[in-house]
Amino acid sequence: MYDHDSDTASLAESYTEMSEILMPDDTNNLGRALGGAILHWMDIAAAVAGRRFAREQVVTAAMDHVDFRAAIDLGDIVTVQAYVFATGDTSMDVKVDVHSERPETGDYEATATSFFTMVAVDDDGTSAPVPHLECPTEAEVALRETALEGRRERRRDLLDAATA
User: Is 7 exposed, middle or buried (0-12, 13-18, 19+ CB in 10 A)?
Assistant: First the structure.
């Protein structure tokens, strides 16, 4: 585990993975995932990752654009992965990926990605400092670089669209 008194934390300490089976209450009339249900699960995973990293309560400050790239059908297993990839004084950037799985066929598909900004808060609800991010392993460095590049690409695409 980690040292609660340390001023650093690793990407691995924040890594969170949660899975759900898509049930009828979270589907639309076509038997596919409601976008709001997926966004809810993404927000929870980002909060868990942020809380593990900051060792404090966290709140969602922002969420980047989300594209739903593939449908998730009733009964599919939905896996949401999240990890902190950058920090400020009181904020953390969290990459969140969603995949769907149909065990009967072996189909596994990337369905959504977004970037959340979470802010640590103390018992009074005031912004609290977060540890500095460490990436002591090659795997953590690779995850961080993937997230940083993904966010850069997304921001470039948004700027290109705005100036077109």
Answer: exposed
What are the extents of the domains in the chain? 8-163
Question: Secondary structure of the chain in the HEC alphabet?
Answer: CCCCCCCEEEHHHHCEEEEEECCHHHECCCCEECHHHHHHHHHHHHHHHHHHHHCCEEEEEEECCCCCCCCCECCCEEEEEEEEEEECCCEEEEEEEEEEEECCCCEEEEEEEEEEEEEEECCCCCECCCCEEECCCHHHHHHHHHHHHHHHHHHHHHHHHHHC
For residue 49, report the phi and psi dihedrals to the nearest 5 degrees.
Answer: -60, -45
The structure's pTM equals 0.92
Tokens of 31: 């038997």
pLDDT exceeds 70 at position 2? no
pLDDT, tens digit (0-9, with 9 covering 90-100), for 64-88: 989 899 999 999 999 999 999 999 9
CATH 1.10.260.40 correct for 8-163 = no
C-alpha separations of 14 from 79, 96, 113, 120, 153 in Å: 16, 12, 17, 13, 23
